[in-house]
Amino acid sequence: MPDEPLLESISAAAMAKIAHGASDFQPEGLTNMAWAWAALSVRDPPLFQSIASAAMAKISDFAAQGLSGTAWSYATRSVSNPPLLAAISSASLPRLLSFTLQGLGNTAWAFATRGYSHAPLLEAISSEAIPKLRSSPPPAPAEVLAPVRGLSAAGAAGARALGPLLEAAGTLMERQARRMDGRFPGAQQHDRCDGSASGGPASATPYVMLRRPHLYVLWKPPGWTVTVGNGEDDDLASADTTPGSGSPLQDWVMGQLGSESLVAEDAGAAHGFLHRLDCQTSGAILCARTYHGYFLASLQFAARRVRKEYVCLCHGWLCASPHLFEAPLLVVHAAGGAKCSTLGVGGRPARTELHWVRHFRGPCGTRLSLTAVRLHTGRMHQIRAHLGSAGHPLVADPKYGGRLFPWCRRVFLHAARLELDIGAGPLAARSDLAEDLVQALEVLGASCERARPSLVVLPCDPG
């Protein structure tokens, strides 16, 4: 945890020097201070406003790294300063050639996050990124994803700029994947299989629901964890990761699937995992079988083109009409040091789409809602935090305000549907509810006989 008294002293001294017009702070020093406070998750609006005033006076002297780093710092801490963003945009446009791919991505992401969708800047970022993708030596996959994530965050404003960049990134990723998969001939085998999978026995142990030439869809039972990832990808940093909290799914993948692909053994490639599910969440999870699958699926996640839908049971009666939860979410440390997400200033954009709702009355007349939601972003505990903050926490989720019941002893959350296309045709997987969740619904009444066979037909209303 940051030393708050020390940071307050440094902040006060820095603001005093800036206020007196001291020239102690060169552009690099201003950038470094903003970056340090952002990296430490310290929200200090007065300091950030002081830095902004000093930075705008020297913006023409900022290096490319300073421009992108300053933009990233202000967006990360959700500090609004339109004049500073306008100054950074004007200073960046003629100098984008000097930006790294990471710098281009950080800049696009920062402007999108703060709602400053400057189309000329976004298109210029895409135009500068494409030649860098074709450079020699080629950039690492993580560098390739940075501008894609940045432009994707801009939504419709970045769509025009994203298309050409995504095509160039895909070409590079395919070339790198061929080189890496070529070291392991077994990675190129092509199984006969359909483009979709549905259902399957809700086993207490993992199994392969769907096997494609480059991807698996695995069944993840409750009590299994995915504790891999580099911490930079939201989809690989959005779940419970407490050591010892469950059986590691990556160990199962290495033991059961290691003979089919090098990716299963590669910790640097997250053992093939493209996203996470919370320990108690059951359902479908995507795992790469080859580097081709890993790189191109990672690109689809970065571009927000993967469809992920969940079924959950929450307290109260949700409004039945489809709508969006869009409150920004901030990761904080709760009692005992565990991480959780909360609504608050400084949170990152998050979007959860409510598809359908069905109302139940539980034992003792408790009002409950069975609902299907789609994730448009991948923040930690996003569904749990959004519904909990709206007054509808998930059943058996005390961390976010839900009650435990004798008929449901784990968080009622199930990954029901996955869809994506990495260029070989659509992959669509649907996962039946785990048996313990079906039994929980059966407690709610005989009407569940009507719902049970169709719960995975999303986004249609099962009723």
UniProtKB/TrEMBL annotation:
One Pfam family matching this protein: PseudoU_synth_2
Source species, domain of life: Eukaryota
The name this protein goes by in its record: Pseudouridine synthase RsuA/RluA-like domain-containing protein
GO MF, one example: RNA binding
Residues forming coiled coils: none
BP terms from Gene Ontology: enzyme-directed rRNA pseudouridine synthesis
Residue span, Pseudouridine synthase RsuA/RluA-like domain: 217-387
Signal peptide region: none
Organism: Alexandrium monilatum
Xref: SUPFAM superfamilies: Pseudouridine synthase
InterPro entries xref list: PsdUridine_synth_cat_dom_sf, PsdUridine_synth_RluA-like_CS, PsdUridine_synth_RsuA/RluA, RluA_PseudoU_synthase
